[in-house]
Design brief:
InterPro entries: RNA_pol_Rpc34 (IPR007832), RNA_pol_Rpc34-like (IPR016049), WH-like_DNA-bd_sf (IPR036388), WH_DNA-bd_sf (IPR036390). With about 240 residues, the protein is an alpha+beta fold. It is about 35% helix and about 10% strand.
Amino acid sequence: MSRLQGPSSLKRKRPELNSPAQSLTEHERILYDVIRSKQDIGIWTRDMKKEAKLPDNVVNKSLKALQVKNLIKEVVNIQNKGRKHFMATEFEPSKEISGGAWYLEGSLDTEFIESLRQLCKRQIEKKVVATLEEVTDLINSYPAFNVDVTKQQIEEILRTLIWDNAIMEVKSNGMGEFASIPFGKVCYRYVSKGGLGGEPRAGALATIPCGVCPRISHCTPDGVISPKTCVYYQKWLDF
C-alpha cells in the first residue's frame, strides 16, 4: 500500500446504517464491543480473551466472522510485531501503535519519506528561498499525495535535507531574494550544485557565521546575543 496515490484512509469512518454490526451473534457482539471500546489503541488477542471471558475456539471463530464482515482488522503493533492485534475498522492506529506518520503497516515508509524529501528539495530549488509554511502549502497542494502533511512533518524532512547539505536554514534580511519574507523569519535556502566533483556549494550566506549559529533565533541588535558583541561575526567582518 502506498500513500502516493489512491483514496486517503486516515480519518475515522462512520459506521453505516444497516451495517453488518446490526446482525451479530451474541458472542460476536461481545467480542466486537470489547475491540471497539479500545478505539485507536486496539487490543491484543490474549487481553481480548480475558476481557471477553470467552473460550479460545469461540474467540477465534468470532474474530474470523468479524473480519469477514469488515468490522475489525488486524493491525501491526510496532512495539510487539509478533502479537496479533485487532482494532475496529472505523479507527486508524494511534502513533503508539503505528509508529507515527513515517510508518505504514508497521514498517518505516521509506518510499514516502524519500518522495517527500525530493519534492521539498525541488520546491525550494524553484523558489530559491522558502518558509516552512510555503513548503508545507506547496506539498499539500501537490496532486500525487493523498495525505495532508503537517508543518512538523515537513520541518523534520527539511532537517534531513539540511544534514545532507541540500538546503540551509537562514534568517530573512528582508532584501533581495528575501524581499517577500518578513525580516528575521526563519526560512530555507537551496544549496546550489557546483564546484569540483559536483559537490554542493553553499550560497553567500553560508559563509556568514550567523548561518550556522545555534543561537541565531535569540540574536537581536540590542540583545544579550547580538552582532555587536559576537566575536565570530566581527572576525568575519575583519576577514
